[in-house]
Amino acid sequence: QVQLVESGGGLVQSGGSLRLSCAASLSIFSFNAMGWYRQAPGKERELVAIINSGGSTNYADSMKGRFTISRDAAKNTVYLQVDSLKPEDTAVYYCNAQTWTRTSWGQGTQVTVSS
After folding, report:
1. Which of 16, 20, 45, 109 is disulfide-compatible with 80, CB 3.0–4.6 A?
2. What gap in Å lies between CA 9 and CA 30, rounded to an integer?
3. How far apart are CA 20 and CA 79, in angstroms?
4. What angle do CA 75, 77, 78 make, to 5 degrees?
5. CB distance 96 to 104 below 8 Å
6. Strand pairing partners for 37?
7. Which candidate, 62, 51, 53, places its Cα nearest to that of 86?
8. How far apart are CA 93 and CA 9, in angstroms?
9. CA–CA dist 103, 64 (Å, integer)
């Protein structure tokens, strides 16, 4: 079973940037896709962005423009660059990895944006 470890979260001021990392214990090419999701307090988990094994990316409509997903295959790591952070971006950000038969999740990393 794959282990996914997120890092890079923290407290940042509105307008700032963060780069979140998701390190996988297996080659990222083991998965059909990897993605970032977030869950704000009192809300359901929502998709931010996904990147498939071919490198194609997709973003939730509300996330286009300030979020960028990328990967480094040599490091088995997927990144999420978040720019122009807003207080409403405050959430736990989760990484996931999908195969045909299984979806695995990391433990999440907290991002808190102060106004």
Report:
1. 20
2. 26
3. 5
4. 150
5. yes
6. 47, 94
7. 62
8. 8
9. 24
Measured from the Cβ of residue 111, the count of other Cβ atoms closer than 10 Å reads: 22
**Quick one: pLDDT at residue 1?**
84
Q: Tell me the two tokens of residue 104.
A: 């695995």
Give me the chain's average pLDDT, please.
96
- List of E strands, 8-85: 10-13, 18-24, 33-39, 46-52, 57-59, 67-72, 77-82
DSSP β-ladder status, 109-114 and 10-13:
parallel
Cα–Cα distance, 49 to 64 (Å, whole number): 9
How far is it, in rounded angstroms, from Cα 60 to Cα 31?
Answer: 20
Residue 8: partners with Cβ closer than 8 Å, 6 or more residues away: 18, 19, 20, 21, 109
Q: pLDDT tens across 30-70, in order?
A: 999 999 999 999 999 999 999 999 999 999 998 889 999 99
Token duo for residue 69: 């997903």
